[in-house]
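Summary of Year 1 activities. Much of the first year was spent building the evaluation harness for sequence design. The harness presents a backbone, in tokenized form, and records the residue chosen at every position. We chose the following record to illustrate the format because it has been used consistently in internal testing since the harness was completed.
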């Protein structure tokens, strides 16, 4: 009997060696957390009653623990695809020398994160200080920071931070999981504060890193990508050997994985509303990775709603951060603003960004706030206010509970315009005030018509104080292939009218027409981010030159145009929006719909004529060559 038992054990071992063994493990992933420490919208976040809020690190901690307990001895890996900071007002505490986001992630038990474009919101030094406070300068915390294609000059303090190009994790069941990180080209373009930091080509680095991981024994390779879904698809095609791409950046949610060349691509949404869950197996014989979610009846996205109880340890840290944020806002605003949970405005409707490349109600609200409050702060009537779609980060969605109906919390309002910092290194982009000529107003409108087509909706501008009609097809003759550079036509803007009334811009008759080529000065406010790139266009395209001036036509620098309060501190866009909401108390019906501030009238695009001309020239050259060849043959 003993001999038979020994034989059976030997037989089973032999079969497992020949046929291979399926080793199971689970990957959990989040992305674009954006300092969203608590559930959103905060307006509806009432712990005492069921509520529709989603997210929060305290709920995430509980969900991760539940999955780990459910899996028992099966390995569970938790990873982030970057942009852990920026966007939420909690990110402002980073400039107050706090690192709440990453410290919470370490406590929850993340294995690794990669670096997104918003990690550079406060510059390379801001990121290095943030990571240094969390232990990454003199030690290696239990959560790794991994990115493979970041080029950090030796002169920067960030070079001293323990950032890994890749790592192999030896899981408890013997599987070796190789992890590397990539920041895509489109993402890095949106990191204007990265300074001297650059990125290496993601495809070249990706292929080199996968090769290194395979040589060093990785069974399964996962890429943490902060690139967007389209670049993820492209990398799955061009980088051979990636098993899984855990993506982020463009706030896409994939309810089910996307397969490209046998690479699994998943995006788990943003603001911690969901945590992605991949139940996987690795076949030791075929070396293939298989998804098991459907077999096990497990959703690919686990919703972090109010059915998930909050982890008390993480909840206490979030409360500590909330107390500090309340104190900062109250102090910086000179006592005008209170706690982030305070109701700031009531509204019978939502004020949203419901379309790209168009006027939006939230754009009208924000720019009206900048124009109206800007007039008071600068003590000089503001004619025009400008804000970019990329800086308006959220909508005004009113409460849905009996006790919150038609209300809107300060925190949710501040999230709409919470990005960036000013030259004085305090939170939020400051307001910038300058004077532009009538002709420069046309240049500005031509710039937004052109840049938004080249670089996307982020560069589409919203306005208060004017209304205009334009044809996007007449902004440029064409884009030069391969380098995505436009040849401007400067013919997009058809008509511009300046609003001469006071208060909320409406559809009254209080408008005067502006004319191209005019030299009258107009008072314009925008934010520090938009103000950085507007004059840069004129350096490349002189016909679209824009120079900031004071009211006496003297050219001024960007720093000189920053608006300051009486106490000397920078006046922030978030202050203007919050003070405007306080002043209104109730949302005017004007913002229930757009007001034809931006009207698009499309004709035949110039690029059609350009490409037709190029085709005719090419055809002419071909005919000429054929004619010459024919002559030569006849001779």
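For this record, the design step produced the sequence shown next.
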């Amino acid at each position: 009997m003993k001999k038979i038992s020994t034989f059976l054990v030997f037989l089973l071992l032999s079969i497992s060696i020949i046929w291979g063994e399926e080793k199971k493990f689970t990957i959990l992933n989040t992305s674009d957390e954006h300092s969203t420490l608590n559930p959103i919208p905060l307006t509806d976040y009432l712990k005492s009653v069921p509520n529709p809020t989603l997210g929060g690190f305290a709920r995430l901690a509980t969900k991760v623990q539940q999955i780990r307990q459910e899996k028992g001895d099966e390995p569970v890996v938790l990873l982030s695809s970057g942009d852990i900071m920026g966007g939420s007002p909690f990110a402002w505490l980073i400039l107050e020398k706090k690192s709440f986001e990453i410290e919470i992630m370490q406590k929850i038990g993340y294995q690794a994160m990669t670096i997104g474009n918003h990690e550079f919101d406060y510059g390379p030094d801001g990121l290095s200080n943030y990571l240094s406070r969390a232990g990454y300068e003199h030690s290696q915390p239990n959560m790794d920071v991994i990115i493979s294609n970041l080029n950090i000059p030796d002169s920067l303090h960030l070079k001293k931070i323990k950032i890994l190009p890749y790592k192999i994790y030896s899981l408890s069941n013997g599987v070796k999981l190789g992890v590397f990180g990539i920041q895509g080209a489109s993402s890095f373009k949106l990191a204007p504060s990265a300074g001297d930091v650059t990125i290496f080509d993601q495809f070249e680095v990706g292929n080199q890193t996968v090769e290194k991981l395979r040589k060093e024994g990785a069974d399964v390779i996962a890429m943490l990508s902060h690139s967007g879904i389209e670049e993820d698809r492209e990398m799955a095609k061009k980088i051979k050997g990636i098993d899984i791409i855990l993506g982020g950046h463009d706030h896409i949610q994939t309810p089910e994985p996307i397969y490209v060349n046998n690479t699994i691509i998943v995006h788990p949404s943003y603001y911690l509303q969901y945590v992605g869950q991949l139940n996987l197996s690795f076949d030791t014989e075929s070396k293939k990775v298989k998804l098991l979610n459907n077999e096990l009846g497990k959703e690919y996205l686990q919703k972090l709603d109010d059915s998930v109880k909050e982890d008390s340890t993480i909840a206490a840290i979030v409360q500590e951060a909330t107390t500090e944020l309340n104190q900062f806002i109250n102090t910086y605003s000179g006592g005008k603003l209170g706690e982030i949970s305070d109701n700031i405005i009531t509204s019978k409707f939502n004020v949203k960004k419901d379309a790209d490349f168009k006027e939006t109600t939230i754009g009208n609200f924000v720019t009206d706030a900048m124009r109206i409050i800007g007039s008071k702060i600068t003590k000089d009537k503001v004619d025009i206010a400008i804000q970019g779609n990329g800086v308006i980060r959220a909508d005004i969605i009113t409460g849905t509970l009996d006790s919150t109906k038609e209300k809107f919390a300060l925190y949710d309002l501040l999230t709409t315009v919470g990005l960036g910092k000013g030259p004085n290194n305090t939170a939020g982009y400051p307001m910038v005030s300058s004077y532009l000529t009538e002709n420069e107003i046309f240049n500005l409108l031509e710039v937004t018509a052109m840049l938004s087509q080249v670089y996307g909706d982020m560069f589409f501008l919203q306005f208060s104080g004017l209304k205009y009609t334009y044809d996007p097809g007449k902004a440029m003759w064409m884009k030069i292939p391969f380098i995505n550079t436009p040849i401007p036509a400067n013919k997009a803007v058809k008509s511009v009218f300046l609003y001469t009334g006071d208060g909320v811009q409406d559809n009254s008759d209080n408008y005067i027409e502006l004319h191209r080529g005019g030299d009258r000065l107009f008072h314009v406010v925008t934010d520090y981010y938009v103000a950085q790139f507007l004059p840069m266009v004129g350096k490349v395209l002189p016909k679209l030159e824009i120079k900031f001036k004071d009211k006496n036509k003297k050219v001024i620098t960007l720093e000189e145009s920053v608006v300051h309060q009486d106490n000397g501190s920078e006046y922030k866009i978030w202050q203007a929006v919050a003070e405007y909401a306080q002043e209104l108390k109730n949302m005017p019906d004007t913002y229930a719909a757009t007001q034809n501030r931006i009207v698009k009238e499309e004709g035949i695009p110039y690029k059609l004529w350009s490409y037709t001309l190029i085709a005719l020239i090419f055809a002419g050259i071909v005919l000429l060559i054929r004619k010459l060849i024919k002559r030569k043959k006849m001779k």
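Confidence is low (pLDDT under 50) at residues 14-18. Quantitative recovery figures across the full test set are reported in Table 2.
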